[in-house]
Design a protein that fits this description.
The protein is of the alpha+beta class and about 170 residues long. The chain is about 25% helix and about 35% strand. It has helices at about 1-15, 20-25, 50-60, 75-85, and strands at about 30-35, 40-50, 85-90, 95, 100-105, 110-120, 130, 140-150, 150-160, 165.
């Protein structure tokens, strides 16, 4: 207990001594999981994105206030259009693989977006992925995608300066 209080005190000193501009600095990060499904030769993807950031971006694009409630079919269509415009997969031969929209749900202040990427072949070798969600709107946006195939794992990091990343060449 004493050690915890000491660490908490040190952390408080750092927070209080930080310049005021650091207190309110917004952090824009999304985290996603992509699992290779051998039977269907596809990736099932779940992306966790801030509801506040999404509502801000979609409201600006639609020129009216939008609220993500997880129920409205109209809002889902707007969200689907946005995600399919800023999330792409490209094979080594430059052929686009169109993600299949599965749906979305709201959990507290997070939106969970579900996609499926049908590869139709047993390898991701040479494939690239573009994850531009919120990158154009927020300069400091970082999108992390944890890719998994069996016991193999790799994390891809997408930013404004590098929104395209190669998928692992696992077989």
């Amino acid at each position: 207990m004493r050690r915890f209080l000491k660490l908490a005190g040190i952390a408080l000193v750092f927070v209080v001594s930080a310049p005021p501009q650091a207190w309110g600095h917004p952090h824009h990060v999304s985290v996603g999981m992509a699992d290779w499904i051998e039977e269907t030769q596809s990736i099932e993807m779940a992306l966790n994105v801030s509801v506040i950031d999404l509502e801000e971006v979609l409201s600006k694009r639609q020129k009216r206030a939008l609220e993500l409630d997880g129920k409205s079919k109209e809002i889902e269509k707007v969200l689907q259009k946005y995600f399919l415009s800023c999330f792409r997969i490209e094979r080594a031969d430059k052929v686009a693989i169109v993600p299949k929209w599965i749906g979305y749900e709201i959990e507290d202040d997070a939106a969970w977006i579900y996609l499926e990427i049908p590869f139709g072949r047993p390898s991701m070798k040479g494939c690239k992925i573009y994850h531009g969600v919120l990158i154009q709107e927020f300069e400091e946006q970082v999108n992390l995608l944890h890719v998994k195939r069996g016991k193999q794992r790799k994390t891809l990091k997408f930013r404004k300066r590098d929104p395209w990343q190669k998928l692992p060449a696992w077989h």
